[in-house]
Amino acid sequence: MHKIAKAPPEAQNKRLIIAKIVVVALYGVGAIGLSLPEYRDYFLMLTPAQLILTLLLVLGFHRGWSEAFPIFAAVAFWIGFGAELIGIHTGYIFGDYVYGPTLGPMLWQVPIVIGINWFILVYLTGAVFYKVTDNDYYAALLGATAMTLIDYIMEPVAVALDFWYWKSGVIPADNYLTWFIVAFLIHLIYRKGNFDKGNPLAAFLLVAMILFFTILNFTLQV
């Protein structure tokens, strides 16, 4: 592979600062807009675009553009999307639930951005923990645990905003167990991938996403 020339440190720092400002605007303004009933419908329409822009930010600061990275990205997308697909059509894996229209275009009754969301969450949590340990299983355990905690924060908000809803009206406990298992599997694949896992924006972006859903848990009174 040809090496990609790196920008000077000053230019890289400036680019990172601009990206962080974009992240604050993206998730800060989004949290405010979704918290205000008179503007909520407009911001809900932007939800798929928010995920796509988050993906572009992730990829824009990704360092390890080897042949293995797009393979991992595709595998993460399809494992996550496939698990949701089975869940929707069988009631197994995560429980008996249905997606609402908020997340945009669907494929086989599952929003396409759901696969992107799985990739983003695994990538961000993996990037945060990748230097913590050399043990792939321990790292996958940490990443999957973090993702399960994020899902716990995200679930009530997702139901309130009609991302999806549970047919029983109650979030089943085994949803979190199966979410952990799927996340653990994708994290192991992430760890085995032969690409640079450093991303200077990852931790900041992950914190912004967690704060976004935490704030909405209070402002939506879910």
Largest sheet: 2 strands, antiparallel
- Which sequence of strands runs across the widest sheet? 1-4
* CA-CA gap between termini: 50 Å
Number of strands: 4
What general outline do the C-alpha atoms trace? globular
Helix content: 55-70%
Query: What is the residue-averaged pLDDT?
Result: 89
> What is the N-to-C succession of helices and strands?
HHHHEEEHHEHH
- Low-confidence blocks of residues: 1-5
The figure for the number of domains is: 1
Overall radius of gyration: 17 Å
Alpha-beta content class: mainly alpha
Count of discrete alpha- or pi-helical segments spanning 4 or more residues: 8
Strand content: under 5%
Characterization of the model:
The protein has 222 residues and is mainly alpha-helical. It has one domain. Helices cover 69% and strands 5% of the residues. It is built from eight helices and four strands. The chain has helices at 9-35, 37-45, 47-60, 68-90, 112-129, 136-160, 174-192, 202-219; strands spanning 97-99, 106-107, 110-111, 164-166. The strands form two sheets. The chain has a two-stranded antiparallel sheet. Helix 1 runs parallel beside helix 8 (202-219) and helix 6 (136-160) packs parallel to helix 8. The radius of gyration is 17 Å and the shape is globular. The chain starts with 8 loop residues before the first helix and ends with a helix. Residues 1-5 have low confidence and may be disordered. Pfam families: Caroten_synth. The chain crosses the membrane at residues 16-36, 42-61, 68-94, 106-130, 137-154, 174-190, 202-220. Keywords: Membrane, Transmembrane, Transmembrane helix. This is Putative membrane protein.
